[in-house]
Amino acid sequence: MGKEVIKINISKEDDHVFHRNLNLEYPIIDRAEGVYLYESSGKKFIDGCSGAVAANLGHGVTQITDAMNQQAKKAAFVHSLRFETEVLYKLSKEIIDLAPKNFSKVFYTCSGSEANESAIKLVHQYHKDRGNEFKRLIVGRWQSYHGNTLGTLSIGGDLKRRTSFSALLYEHPHINSPITDNEDMSLTNYIDELESLIKNYGAENIGAIICEPIVGSQQGAMVPPYEYFKRIKDICKKNDLLLIIDEVMTGFGRTGKNFAIEYFDVIPDIITFGKGVTGGYAPLGGIIVHNDIVKAILENSNGIFKHGFTYSGHPVLVATGLAAINYYKSNDILYNCNIQSEYLLKGLNQIYDKYKMIKSINGKGLLIGLEFVPNRDHDKDFKASEKVSERLNQISMENGLVLYPGSGAKKGKLGQHIIIAPPLTVNNTEIDEILEILDKSLLKLQKEINYN
Ligand code: PMP
């Protein structure tokens, strides 16, 4: 946009980046502005998924980049084992203000995976220091993702990511999370599954259950029934389990509330976060801890959380988070998220009418999933090998739209979906553009796969 385009010529042989797929060539992004990414060749992409549902505030927000710069100049690094900084103090206060009531402390990491690892360790320490050292297992759910480290992969259910490393994973048990269109199972079945798991393993061996409030990458933003988390919480109370809510994808306004667990009127014990806290401007994550756990750490562990990273509370990262939260608040991003969500859903409903391949539209706020089947009038699923969501992603990338493809465990198979999650700053015109390219891409995909 009026700026000089710098052409970078990178040949495949010269590219020493260990890409996720060494056989692919990746477009080189030269600059980004608002909801757009620009390739060095000049090609433009509209960011329909905020990168990895992280760039919640769009690109090029100078209030944030200035704050990063200023903090880097003031004090780029101090070790949080010995020092606190003003930005660390202020960000923690802001996060506690946004969190549900009775949360009182925030511990920082550099990613969502590290946040969930930290939660696993806090749960273990909490129980052990209270004399319950065998409460070691964390109940995960098959339709969930909590990160790519060994601990978080073990509690998550990402079959594709788990398979190659299954020999290294810890044996944490799993249940299914509610699938909106699974006529075979009522809410009670899902709750019964948890109760019988606790009976089998023994409550004395289980420390916590971890759930995404609205499952992102593994379930395409399906929203569980309102009662679900209340019933999970009751079971937790009965069996002395902690409830960890993973808000790495959903937190900081993504679903139209500060935290998605607010939709269910349930207070968890630990909330984990990442992505949106800085709007993707810096790698920051963390855990928000309920006061009851803080009290237990003070009483039973001499106030010491036996855990930490070199970069926990890194001043530049937390200054970025602080500037991002100020931006969320001063621009009423939550309001924009909710009105743009309505607009997006209206357009998606029209697209739904055109394609039998779309089985359902799910989600809240600007975390919207489309679930795909060959034809919604027939009870059949795509085969995982057809990689339908990945193919849609490729076609839409060619057309200049970035989406977040996914596939999650569904009745023992992999369901296919994509997530549409543009920056929460998106406007109507940009949503129209997303819808137009999506429509065009679905038409091409439909022809290619030759269903309907
Ligand atoms: N939890 C959830 C719900 C996520 O969506 C993700 C990332 N997609 C993670 C954890 C892991 O976060 P990170 O990639 O920052 O480690």
From TrEMBL:
InterPro entries: Aminotrans_3, Aminotrans_3_PPA_site, PyrdxlP-dep_Trfase, PyrdxlP-dep_Trfase_major, PyrdxlP-dep_Trfase_small
CDD domains, sorted: OAT_like
Pfam families (alphabetical): Aminotran_3
PROSITE patterns per the UniProt record, alphabetical: AA_TRANSFER_CLASS_3
UniProt keyword annotations, A-Z: Aminotransferase, Pyridoxal phosphate, Transferase
Family note: Belongs to the class-III pyridoxal-phosphate-dependent aminotransferase family.
Record-linked PANTHER family: AMINOTRANSFERASE (PTHR43094), AMINOTRANSFERASE CLASS-III (PTHR43094:SF1)
Protein name listed in UniProt: Aspartate aminotransferase family protein
